[in-house]
Design goal:
The chain has about 270 residues and is an all-alpha fold. About 75% of the residues lie in helices and about 0% in strands. The chain has one domain (about 1-265).
Length: about 270
């Protein structure tokens, strides 16, 4: 396991894409946070005590329902590259010859990836917090922000692991990148719209199936305040705990498929 960790740590540090993806995630997130801070006038909305402007800035708008988690897309691509590079450049056989324990190799890739992404997310949140303190009028830092911040971290880590696992399943870097990006930005929105339309015409029960869409559930878990942001729509929305669970069940299912594919199939 130590050898696998050393190998993966050297790999992620010597590939330029690791730095490009991380830099883009940080720069774009901070840019959105700065834009929100400059355009938001807290003094005009102090009566709306349910609105957590500070957490909106710190999460680069992710705790607001109308803004996607920009960083997650770059971390998902990083995850796909962590495994996809092995198949793209044909180094998978050499890697498994030097490190025959496939579970150790997969675990090492996951651990190093999660560590790298966690450090990047911490950097994003710290810089965004500084932006809030410097540019947001009367910022309010409280323990209420802990839940959306933790779920923001979890969302980014989950996407990174999903990208890694999809690359192991498809054995193709490009296919994994397409899948991990098309699902949340194309397939889920279309599915949500179709279920919503059918549910409105026939049965509200069918519409509640939208709660089972994993990336949408993960997004809702970041909303602050949850009841206000997740309450929009025709159908009942599950609570923050259930939404978080749906997201992680989906992520761990993909991870399980990736592990099984990597361990059981020929190199």
């Amino acid at each position: 396991m130590i050898g696998a960790l050393r190998y993966e740590w050297v790999r992620i540090r010597t590939i330029a894409s690791s730095y490009w993806m991380t830099a883009l995630a940080i720069v774009l997130s901070v840019a959105v946070a700065l834009l929100i801070a400059l355009l938001t006038n807290v003094n005009e909305m102090q009566d709306l005590d349910v609105v957590q402007f500070t957490s909106w800035v710190i999460t680069a708008g992710a705790s607001f329902s109308g803004i996607p988690v920009l960083a997650s897309a770059f971390f998902a691509v990083m995850g796909a590259m962590a495994m996809g590079h092995e198949y793209r450049y044909g180094t998978n056989k050499a890697t498994l010859t030097a490190l025959p324990d496939r579970i150790a190799v997969y675990a090492a890739k996951s651990v190093v990836l999660v560590t790298w992404v966690s450090a990047a997310v911490a950097g994003i949140l710290l810089i965004d917090a500084a932006v809030a303190a410097l540019f947001l009028s009367h910022p309010h830092f409280s323990t209420d922000a802990i839940r959306p911040l933790l779920n923001y971290w979890g969302y980014c880590v989950g996407f990174a692991l999903a990208g890694l696992s999809l690359a192991a399943i498809f054995r193709n870097q490009t296919g994994a990148i397409v899948a991990v990006l098309v699902w949340p930005y194309v397939i889920e929105p279309i599915t949500y719209g179709v279920l919503g339309a059918i549910g409105q015409r026939s049965s509200h029960t069918l519409g509640t199936l939208t709660n089972l869409l994993p990336t949408s559930a993960g997004r809702r878990s970041i909303f602050d305040p949850y009841d206000l942001m997740a309450g929009y729509g025709v159908f009942d929305t599950w609570g923050v705990g259930a939404s978080t669970l749906v997201f992680w069940v989906a992520v761990l299912s993909v991870v399980g498929g990736g592990v099984a594919s990597f361990v059981l199939r020929d190199a």
